[in-house]
Amino acid sequence: MFGYIASVSADYAGAMSHYERQQYREAIQEFRELARDEDADAQYMLGRMHEAGNGTPQDFVEAHKWYNLAASRGHRHAVGAREAVAERMTAHQIAEAQQAARGWQAREPATAATPEPRRPETLSGRELVAETQRELNRLGYDAGPVDGLMGARTRNAIRSYQGQAGLARDAQPSPQLLARLRQSGRASAQVPAQAPSRAVPTESAPAEAPVRVALQDDFNDGDYHRNPAWTVLSGDFRIDRNGLRSVVEVPDERAPARRSLSSDRPEEVGLAMLKLILEQTGSVQPEAAPVAAETARIFVASPIRNAFEMELDLASRQKAGSLELGVFQGNSSGAGYRLVYRPDTRPGLSLIRVTSNGSDVIASSDGAINLEDDRFHTLAWTRDEDGEMRISVDGRRVIQARDTSFRERFQGFVFANHGGDYSLGRIRVED
Asked: Would 91 be classed as within a structural domain?
């Protein structure tokens, strides 16, 4: 057990903030404090941290115990996580974990007044989303896990609440919305008989279409070959404590002339291709192209509709090279959309369209986007039925563009390292 002085102001958003910064000791302390009050989300996170060995020695017994406790309180992901970790345990360990869960006791209700939650306007973007998710779930709206990440379920829950509350249905979190949700929560607590057990859309707010998870992986099982199955086309990939990792050395020497692009290989979306396009459009000044690094490429076959919402956690450790990721049709190097990230370069992020006729830049970010700060960053990419695409990094929109080149569904997701040290912590695609 860890010895520490628990903070009375511990909250889930703050604990998640520590977790995302890889401040695991602080995160596990705050999650433990919340778990004592029977917080299912905190109990689930304790299970994940014990399973992965984040901030504590890896302990499948403790992980199973916390997943079990979270499952008993209705956490929707806890049952699957408990069953997955049980496959890595002996019968004796499972029995020990079950006994530990039965013997666990929640904290007695405090006699002192509960401290007021932080004011909405003081919360960061991710904290604001997490608190909004928490309040929506308490009111019976299915906002998904309280993880501070905007996905289709969170947007649908916000939209449903706004429709019932007579608010503009923009499906966006805001300090004003959170304050309204908290006020609704207090009113529901005072009049439990009138509190709905589940949000029911009104005639003016029709039910949203069910969300389908097209692709999801956090690599916690330590294996990228199954569930789902990723395929390495070139280079080396491995699983470590940070997820799926690829390291490709970037040559220091410069080539005397630019490497030409083959017209019969439109799939070649890398550093040379992107610089050629940007130079032709006047976005950057021509210069001698760097010697091409070897490419490490991996993909996962998973049908994705052409309207999708993607969220992934990405870490970059070197200010060199480039990273390509996106959705494809046909083979993994074929037509589709790619995002190309180039550290310490302007523009830092570009949205590329790849077709049988070649590749071109649809839109780029303003200025550089530097992710090399030894932490994960959340990249969100959405595309609607009209081809409108929005791309944000850590909640800040960096690209918005419309393209209707692709009407059919995509066949999967591709991730290619053209030089650098990158980790994919998790990916989730809904459509």
From this structure: yes
